[in-house]
Amino acid sequence: MVTRRNFLKRAAVASAGLAVGGIGTMNAESYNRIVGANRKVNIAYIGIGNRGEQIIGDFEKTGLVNVVALCDVDMGAKQTQKVIAKYPKAKQFKDFRVMFDKIGNEFEAVAIAIPDFAHFPVTMMAMAHGKHVYVEKPMARTFLEAELMMQAARKYPNVVTQVGNQGHSEANYFQFKAWQDAGIIKDVTSVVAHMNNPRRWHGWDVNIYKYPEAQPIPSTLDWMTWHCAVPYHEYSDKYHNGEWRSWYDFGMGALGDWGAHILDTVHEFLDLGLPYEINPIKLTGHNDYFFPTDSTIQFKFGPRGEMPPCDIMWYDGVNNLPPIPEGYGESALDPNIPASGAGEIKKTTINPGKIIYSKELTFKGASHGSTLSIIPESKAKDMASKLPEVPKSPSNHFANFLLACTGVEKTRSPFEIHGPLSQVFSLGVMAQRLNTKFHFDSRTKQITNNAFANAMLTGIPPRKGWEDFYKI
């Protein structure tokens, strides 16, 4: 078991970095590109069922991984058995701390596909051990956790980080940048982001007044380790296998889940940073335990350089549709949305996506890597000759991470890029939970009009025995 002493000792070793020598006249970057282009990365998978199984398959397709270890709190569950059977030589663990302690020297990277609340401790331990980290979005559940993860990334500069918002390696990423560089996307004043599909809505009674009744813990499940640093809850199937996403104590709701696939390029290329005001405009079915059935949240961002102030309006809920501009046309549906036990995405009146309003043009786009189009169609035809050529992605999101591990590329969604967006989601979730408007000072990173909300930036203190994960 990892103790406080050896955890901090390993962190000190990792932060010292690695000396590169003996390469002759060739510089380190050129050497890495040659040697790293086809080298397999020794990897450990943490979370191997459901979404974990999907990303393991995506990593396998790159041909750039050697699977060293599999780790999951329920290695006997139906959802983990296929992966275990596929990699019989990989060492198996239920507790990630034991895995790092026993075979930490046998792998160089981890891929983390576990509930939102567990991303932080696993990631922090991996970085302290000098391991490269691929972690599913949102990268953290609380504002403080995202802040500490960004600080750790700066402390361990040799560690490669990548957040799993795959659109950052697909067409929309390169199109947005090319259109911005060409002056097509400029002077954006408002963005409407929407997720109005039933995939993430539970249908529970919003008059809830207590947590679910305790149920027997499945015999193969390590329920205590499942919690990581959050306070213990009695087992219920309403928390497990994706249902955790609906609860404030465990997940980030539709905003954290889908916001990363809809707002990632908007946030990065418009240099939005952190908002100065967060306002829950509409919350249907608000309660103290799980996310509302409908939410409309306004985020207000100030001017950045020559860019004007910009508002983001977030709409979620099946019946909570945003205003649709004239000439919108049909709503696209990204073909690369992964399957989920929470329900499939079916084409409806309006599908997950965004509408971007600038002073001169209006754009619409779907989620993930789907490209933008100019609306109405007549305006798109007028602009067609002015649109620049968009470069193709040199690698998908998984290959990008692995090639970065070997020095060939740089990751497109590292912690320093995704971290502030994760914090935006945390602020939005706090506004949902407390149902009140916040004023936020991005310089001091404090909420200035609500002391209780300000205290929530750090979240509930970690469970006993998990305190050291919060120390850099």
CATH architecture of the largest domain: 2-Layer Sandwich
Domain count: the total is 2
Helix proportion range: 25-40%
Number of DSSP strand runs:
15
> Mind telling me the CATH class of the largest domain?
Alpha Beta
Percent strand:
15-25%
Compressed to H and E, one letter per element, the order equals HHEHEHEHEHEHEHEHHHEEEEEEHHHEEH
Radius of gyration: 22 Å
Biggest sheet strand order reads: 13-12-11-7-10-9-8-14-15
> Ends: how far apart?
20 Å
Question: Within the CATH hierarchy, at the fold level, what is the topology of the largest domain?
Answer: Dihydrodipicolinate Reductase, domain 2
Protein name: Gfo/Idh/MocA-like oxidoreductase N-terminal domain-containing protein
Domain Gfo/Idh/MocA-like oxidoreductase bacterial type C-terminal: 213-271
Domain Gfo/Idh/MocA-like oxidoreductase N-terminal: 42-161
GO molecular function, one term: nucleotide binding
